[in-house]
Fold this protein.
Amino acid sequence: MPQQPAQQRLQMIVAQLRQQIAQQKDGACRQPRFDAQLFRCKGTRLADYLCELEHNLTQLSAAETDVVRRQWLAEKVLDQIAALQRECQSQQLRTPRERPRGDPRQSKREEYQGYETRLLAMIEQREQHLARAETLVVQQQLIRDVEVLHERLARCRNALHKLELSAPAR
């Protein structure tokens, strides 16, 4: 079966993620870390999201006959892996940012710019998946995802703009 090596690779990647998460301080943050479309989990620790990813990987292994569900789950698992990898890589950047700073506007600006960067990466990732999507159902879902992400990006940029307008003149 050609699917076995792919599933083994996914399991290896998830095992590496598990190691990375175990090595980091995984303290709770104030709000969920990911979009509700990506993870159903409302947890605030990376380990919470890793559990959901592992559950989806198990479901992917079990969904051998339903091709559409299998493809949807595969896309979701890949998106979740990519999101957790990005989050693990950005943990070193987050720790200092979560501490209070002297200028609250500067920390808000950095927070919004971080959101903007992650949203742009998510849009690019969904557009790449869309280019490779084979079924109409998956294409429609990815198009909706891209539209939602563009709306979030617009709100983020609007918040950045309002923050710039509220800055005192120097």
Remarks:
- Residues 8 and 14 are 10 Å apart (CA to CA).
- The two ends are 66 Å apart (CA to CA).
- Confidence is low (pLDDT under 50) at residues 96-100.
- The helical segments are 3-23, 46-62, 67-98, 104-132, 136-166.
